[in-house]
Specification:
By secondary structure, the protein is α+β, with helices and mostly antiparallel strands. It has 2 domains: about 80 residues, Arc Repressor Mutant, subunit A; about 90 residues, Winged helix-like DNA-binding domain superfamily/Winged helix DNA-binding domain (Arc Repressor Mutant, subunit A, Orthogonal Bundle). The protein is built from 8 helices and 5 strands; from the N terminus they run H-H-H-E-E-H-H-E-H-H-E-E-H. The strands form 2 sheets. A 3-stranded antiparallel beta sheet has the order 3-5-4. A two-stranded antiparallel sheet has the order 1-2. A hairpin with a 2-residue loop joins strand 1 and strand 2. Helix 1 crosses helix 3 and helix 5 crosses helix 7. The protein is elongated. The protein starts with about 35 loop residues before the first helix and ends in an 18-residue tail after the last helix.
C-alpha cells in the first residue's frame, strides 16, 4: 500500500485577509443654475451690499468658478430695468458693480439722505482733490504751487474723509510723502477707474 505524502494544512488565521478596496468618494454633482435664477441671485447679492462688489465675489456668492455668466446676468438685468423703466441700474464702480439710482432721481434721494453741512466739501477741498486726482502721485509742495496757498490742512481733511491717502515717498531729499486718491473717491464720484475722469480739455471753465 502506497503511503500518501501528508498534505499541508493551511492556517486560515495566518493568512492576511484581502484589504477591501476603499470606494472612491462620490463626486458632487454640478448644480446648474438657469439664467433667470442666476439673475435673481446676482440681483439679491447686489441689493445686500453697500459698496461695489467685484465680479469674482459675485461669482463666488453664486457658486460659480467663472465670471462670464455673472457679466451676462448683469447685462440682462440692466436691459430688463431699462425696458421696464426702473429708477436704478447696475453700474461699474471702483473696480466692482453696484446698484445705483439714475441721475434724474438724485434730488428726490437727496431729500431723504441729506448730507450734513460739515461733511460737504468746500471749494478749496474740491480744488485740492481735483489736483491730486489728475496729478497723482503728487507732493504737497506741488499741490501748494498749483493752488498758490498752503494745502496741508485741506489734505488732512480729505484724508479724514478717506478720499485721499499716502501712496508712497518721493526719491528726493527728505523723502516727502506722495498723495493719491482712494477707492472711496472712485465710489463717491461714480468712477470705475481713474481713466474715467473727464479729460482736461473736456472741462469747462467756470
Amino acid at each position: 500500500m502506497t503511503q500518501q505524502p501528508p498534505q499541508e494544512v493551511k492556517d486560515d488565521a495566518a493568512e492576511t485577509p484581502d484589504t477591501p478596496e476603499t470606494p472612491a468618494p462620490a463626486e458632487s454633482p454640478e448644480i446648474e443654475i438657469d439664467e433667470p435664477t442666476l439673475q435673481r441671485h446676482v440681483e439679491a447679492v447686489l441689493m445686500s451690499v453697500e459698496k461695489a462688489i467685484s465680479l469674482g465675489k459675485l461669482a463666488e456668492a453664486c457658486g460659480l468658478d467663472t465670471t462670464k455668466p455673472i457679466k451676462d446676468a448683469i447685462e440682462a438685468l440692466n436691459a430688463f430695468y431699462e425696458e421696464h423703466d426702473r429708477s436704478f441700474t447696475i453700474e461699474q464702480v471702483a473696480g466692482g458693480y453696484q446698484i445705483l439710482t439714475l441721475p434724474q432721481y438724485k434730488d428726490t434721494v437727496a431729500t431723504l439722505h441729506k448730507t450734513k453741512v460739515d461733511n460737504k466739501l468746500s471749494a478749496a477741498a474740491l480744488e485740492t482733490l481735483a489736483i491730486i486726482a489728475y496729478k497723482q502721485p503728487i507732493l504737497r509742495a506741488d499741490v501748494e504751487t498749483i493752488r498758490g496757498v498752503s494745502a496741508g490742512e485741506v489734505i488732512r481733511s480729505l484724508m479724514d474723509k478717506h478720499l485721499v491717502k499716502i501712496v508712497g515717498r518721493a526719491e528726493e531729499i527728505g523723502r516727502p510723502m506722495l498723495y493719491g486718491t482712494t477707492k472711496t473717491f472712485l465710489e463717491v464720484f461714480g468712477l470705475s477707474t481713474l481713466k474715467d475722469l473727464p479729460k482736461a480739455e473736456e472741462l469747462q471753465k467756470p
